[in-house]
Amino acid sequence: MIEVQATHEGVLKLNGVEVPCSVLKSGRRVLTQQGFLKAIGRARSAKGGQGSTGGVIPFLAAKNLQAFVDEDMREYLSPIAFTTVGGRPAFGFPAEALPKVCEIFIKARDKGVLTPAQIVIAGRCELIRDALALTGIIGLVDEATGYQFARPIDALQAYLEAVIRKELAAWSKRFPDEFYENIYKLRGWRWPGMNKNRYSVVAHYTRNLVYNRLGPGVLAELEHKNPPDPNTGRRKAKFHQWLTDDVGHPKLAQHLHTIIMFQRHCIARGYSYSRFVAMVDEVMPESDSTLVLPMEYAE
């Protein structure tokens, strides 16, 4: 059904992605499907194209997600056809659907039913959900106090971006303790804590899981810039200290966030370290490596 054309249009900057958005004459806020996909980490078009799949957003049509899409949620997940301010036909979803979709992926991840690619989406959804919750309460306070008429036009947008950057920065300052503790759990080793020296093989795991997957040539360049001392074998700095603040650290932060999501999932499911690495290989293969054929795993 075509609604009255949009009266206002703009771009929502979310999780490093620009999402076109509109307000319809009825007052309904909508996000475009392509922007919706990119926001949660789905770069390609949803299976089934424009429109719905049995009344459900196409990228929620996967069988392993159906148990988490209840009737109350379907009200928010109906596709909308509308016309833009310029009169062009457009297609999108209610803005309220974004946090609803995020909750679906997070709940499905916590139940351990997601595929490796879907786990990556769930990690991005968690960041979006938390950021939207914070900006929501800020908006309510502004409305109650009347500050909404005094604040700069893009104040909430800037706050949303700052919240996400701050959360990611917490990951990029250093490797979280949980990253190493989870490696020990997956290997079945007793965790001695961060104050004890870790097994030397853990450094190899870190190179493999992180630096060798950040991008082609990244590890080689870090090795070149930060070589080990010929006498002691130690390096003058940590590899992450050589990463740039504007590109390197945010990329490292996103990568670590995703790796830890995989770790948590595998620990909760009782998977082995080898199966964990295989799942990471499927979604974030090593740079310049040959893709591994899918295999069945016997725990």
Characterization of this structure:
A hairpin with a 5-residue loop joins strand 4 (80-83) and strand 5. Helices cover 45% and strands 10% of the residues. With 299 residues, the chain is an alpha+beta fold. It contains ten helices and five strands.
Describe this protein with a few key phrases:
299 residues; alpha+beta; 5-stranded antiparallel β-sheet; 10 helices; 10% strand; globular; disordered C terminus
Secondary structure blueprint with pairings:
Elements: E1 6-14, E2 17-24, E3 29-32, H1 33-39, H2 71-74, E4 80-83, E5 89-94, H3 97-110, H4 116-145, H5 155-172, H6 177-187, H7 201-209, H8 218-225, H9 248-269, H10 273-283
Antiparallel strand pairs: 1-2, 2-3, 3-5, 4-5
Helix pairs in contact: 3-4, 4-5, 4-9, 5-9, 6-9, 9-10
Low-confidence stretches: 46-54, 290-299
The SSE string, one letter per element, is EEEHHEEHHHHHHHH
Question: What is the total tally of β strands?
Answer: 5
Termini, distance in Å? Answer: 50 Å
Proportion of helical residues: 40-55%
Major sheet description: 5 strands, antiparallel
Instruction: Give the strand order, joined by hyphens, for the main sheet.
Output: 1-2-3-5-4
Radius of gyration: 22 Å
